[in-house]
Amino acid sequence: MIISLHAQPLAEGSCWRRFEHAASAKPICWESHWERGLLLVLNLNGQKRWQRGEGEGTTLAPRSVAVTWVDGKARIEGLVAQRHEAVCFWASPSWLHTFLGGTLKAVVPQWQTLEEGDDDVVLTTPLEQEEMELAQRLGRLPEGALQKVWLEAQWRRLLCSILQRAPAAADDEFFCLRYHKICDDRVESAHAWLRSHLDSELDLKQLAAHVGCSQFYLSRIFSERTGQTIRQCHRRFRLEEAARLLKGGRFNVSEVAVEVGYRSLSHFTKAFTNQMGCRPSEFSRNR
Question: What structural domains does the chain harbor?
């Protein structure tokens, strides 16, 4: 049973949540939905696992903090027979940019592996004693009109203290290999989805949900890996399929246009000519 759960907005674009849980014979699971932003999970007591999706997750030792980008559902799982206490701080990219005077990667290079929008990367570091005391102080909120100002000041102190040092050391070679594999897998999954949706308008939100990351992050890694935007790739796949159908001879130009998602024959003809170097009717005659 959760002893207490507290959530409160701070300045626009940031908020914090705190929860405690008594020792129990059953594992605990605390799930929450987060908008796109940077999340700090300060684990004060009890060993936990930060979990997003069905992967292995990241172990959170007591007296440690995990820092990651989030966009959607995530959960914290606590081990049995332990008292659990944690506080979380979330900040939107715009709040963080204003606070730091730039992007996280540019201002705090020791945390540069936290690419914005990449919620597969979770970096951890031990909490120092002063940080532990600051975090525990959040459970004793002052009364009165200045409570919100006091809370934001404490979080700003914590954020500065944590980000000024490097995260725990990791196997850089293993991390790079894993990161590139994740990116390649997501681009490959996006390619398959695009090929199976040639006859419908491109829905980036639906595609990102299928791949399992944010639209912003998917668009960036897709362009980096392929040299094309997602829309350019979708259009290329459509026109390549159109060329294949025209070569087959079973469909006329108007039918092919509909098959690959074009509702306007003139738009299809223009796109096909730009891509293939000739009009679809000419391509069909020369097959």
Answer: 2-169 (2.60.120.10), 171-287 (1.10.10.60)
